[in-house]
Amino acid sequence: MDTFVKKLKRKQWLNVASVVAAGGYIGLFLIQKFDAGGSAFEGFFYGFQLGILTALIGYQVFDWVKTQIALRNDEKLKSLYIEETDERKKLIERELGKMASRVSYFGLIIAAIVSGFYNETVFSTLVAVLLGLAAIQIFGKVYYNRKF
Q1: Is the Cβ–Cβ distance between 60 and 15 less than 8 Å?
Q2: Nearest in space to 12 (alpha carbons), one of 92, 102, 72
Q3: pLDDT tens track of the chain, all 148 residues?
Q4: How far is Cα 59 from Cα 20, in angstroms, rounded to an integer?
Q5: Structure letter (DSSP) for residue 62
Q6: Which residue from 105, 108, 137, 147 has the fewest beta carbons nearer than 10 Å?
C-alpha cells in the first residue's frame, strides 16, 4: 500500500503542475490583446484553446480533491486502490485502446487519401501524424517487450 500512496502523491504533484501550467497559459491568453478585426477562425481557435484548458483544469482539480480525500481516509484509500488495480477494468481499457488505435489509423488513412485529392498540406500533415503514431507504437512495443 505504501507504493500506491507514493504513486498517488506523485500523481498529485503532476496534477498541481498541469493546473499551474494551464492556468499560466490562460493568464497569458487573457492578458494578450487580440485584434478585434481577426477572422472567425481565430475566434474559434482561441475559444477552443480556452475551453480545452478550462476542462483540463477542472478535471485535474477534481482528481486532486478525490486523491486528497482518499489519502486522508484509509477506507477510501482502500476503495481507490481496488478501483485502480481492478483486473477487469485494466483488460477493458487495454482492449478499448487496441480498438481505438485501429479505428484512428483507419480514419487517418482514409482522410489522407481523400485530402490528397484536394490539399497537399493537409495530406502531408495527416501522413506525418500517421508516421508519428506508428513510430510511437513501434517504440512502445520494443520498450515493453524488453521490460517484461
Answers
A1: yes
A2: 72
A3: 888 889 999 999 999 999 999 999 888 887 776 555 566 667 787 888 889 999 999 999 999 999 999 999 999 999 989 888 889 988 999 899 999 999 999 999 999 999 999 999 999 999 999 999 999 999 999 998 998 8
A4: 13
A5: H
A6: 147
